[in-house]
UniProtKB/TrEMBL annotation:
The lineage of its organism: Bacteria, Bacillati, Actinomycetota, Actinomycetes, Kitasatosporales. Its EC number is 2.1.-.-. SUPFAM superfamilies: S-adenosyl-L-methionine-dependent methyltransferases. It comes from Streptomyces chrestomyceticus. This is Class I SAM-dependent methyltransferase. The keyword Mitochondrion does not apply. GO terms for molecular function: methyltransferase activity.
Length: 341
């Protein structure tokens, strides 16, 4: 017979439960990101269930790691597990859609958040303190665009006439591939500062046989005059990078120079996430807290919606229309047209 067991009562307090909840949610967050990598969303989209040992063998996965990932997913009800059988859980659809946002956070910005304490010290903000995985960011954003953003983007294109299109901060290059596919007479050029993003883009161009119609340049979108490829652009787009144009005086100067240096430019679809000044931290939707925190750590100012609206006229642009996305939240397409000088 075992001896008497004593224990403390800390484990029953509300605060303790909150801390356990937060800890376990963090593991589930990583599991959502991993689930995309190992094909769980894909397999359960096409079938009602999979068998853990069979799936591990088929995909050459380490079975205990797969089992642990699946268990962590059950924490957020992404899947249900009965022995070896895994089926869709109540939140499967939601996480299948938002997986790109999760991978943006975990794989894209994981190395920055890992050093959140260090970079909060002024002394920790030297050299290459901004560490992120640009390849992961571009792949994550490609998914976010496809699931949440492309429909409104293509809606905004209705009625616009152009034969040369450009995308600033083009990431995976997917928007340009789609523009080229949509109209075989359109030529496209994209620019991105990150080598990893350009590599993802070049691969997509090769896969789609689009190298002759879409050109990607690794460079700084704030210095377009250095690239003759932009001289005859008629449609400019930029998704999820406009905040890199700020602070305000830089943004006004840049928008002004884009208008004056690209004489054929007719339309600019500028979509970006602005700062949320409406919700309290406990009411924030998915993404906002991660987005705003990551950019604060990187020292990048995020303008509010009103601040964005305040720059266009001053820079010689007219905002003809806005489309507000629900996801990513606080994200707007500003449809701009140059005001003639
Ligand atoms: C959040 S990602 C969005 C990528 C893409 N626009 C999309 O919607 O999928 C932002 C991209 O802007 C790029 N970027 C940031 N600053 C830039 C700059 N000054 N010039 C060119 N690209 C830049 C980043 O490397 C990154 O690929």
């Amino acid at each position: 017979m075992s001896g008497a067991i004593t224990g403390d009562t800390t484990g029953n307090t509300t605060d303790y439960k909150k801390s356990a909840e937060l800890f376990n949610s963090t593991i589930a967050t990583w599991a959502v990101s991993a689930a995309w990598d190992i094909g769980i969303f894909e397999v359960l989209d096409g079938a009602d269930a999979f068998d853990i040992p069979a799936y591990a063998a088929q995909k050459k996965l380490h079975e205990p790691s797969l089992r642990a990932t699946v268990r962590a997913l059950t924490y957020a009800e992404v899947v249900e597990v009965d022995g070896d059988r895994v089926t869709r859980g109540a939140t499967f659809g939601e996480f299948s859609r938002s997986k790109g946002l999760f991978q943006w956070l975990t794989k894209g910005y994981g190395s920055l958040f890992q050093r959140m304490g260090e970079v909060t010290y002024t002394a920790g903000r030297t050299g290459d303190f901004i560490r992120r995985d640009s390849t992961a960011v571009s792949i994550a954003c490609r998914d976010v665009n496809e699931v949440f953003m492309d429909e409104a983007f293509f809606g905004a294109l209705d009625g616009l006439e152009f034969s040369v299109a450009a995308d600033l901060g083009c990431g995976s290059g997917e928007r340009l591939v789609q523009l080229a596919k949509r109209d075989p007479s359109v030529r496209c050029v994209g620019i991105d500062i990150a080598k990893g993003a350009i590599e993802v883009g070049e691969k997509a161009l090769a896969e789609n046989g689009m190298q002759h119609r879409v050109k990607l340049i690794q460079g700084d979108a704030r210095k377009l005059s250095q690239y003759p490829e932009f001289a005859d652009v008629e449609l400019m787009t930029s998704y999820l990078m406009g905040h890199d144009f700020w602070p305000r005086e830089d943004c006004v100067a840049l928008l002004r120079s884009i208008r004056t240096e690209l004489p054929n430019l007719k339309y600019f679809l500028l979509a970006d996430t602005h700062r949320d000044i409406t919700n309290s931290v406990t009411e924030l939707p998915v993404f906002t807290l991660g987005f705003e925190t990551a950019h604060a750590l990187m020292g990048q100012y995020i303008p509010t919606h009103a601040e964005w609206e305040s720059v266009f006229e001053e820079a010689g642009w007219k905002c003809t229309k806005q489309h507000v996305y629900s996801t990513p939240s606080s994200t707007v397409i500003f449809q701009l047209e140059p005001v003639s000088a």
